[in-house]
Amino acid sequence: MSELRHDKVYAVPLSTADQPDAPAVALTGKTQIGWILQLVHTRRWALHCDGKHKLSNDKWLLTTYCSHEVRQNKNSDCKSHAKGIVHSLRPLIYMLGKGIEGIGDVIHGLKAMEFVARTCGQ
Prior knowledge:
alpha+beta, five-stranded antiparallel β-sheet, 2 helices, about 25% helix
């Protein structure tokens, strides 16, 4: 973790056996790795996986694996924002692939997240 930089994007080095049918690469960054490691120690969280079809040029699809945070803001937390419910999206893994959100593509991103958690969490 100490060698990672905030201004870099890193490809998750998965084995060829973990590749989906169509070519794909999972990407992440230092901040995203930190969020993944936080989730490892959290009992309840949801994962949101979604392909960005409008960004696709019919050749590559960007799929994001994200977690959501919903919390209650109080006036004492931040004077510039009113109190209320605040929602934040935390992207964890970005996957560029030639697949179209098939099961193999989704599993590839999940294996990338697991690899990051096991490798960087030590």
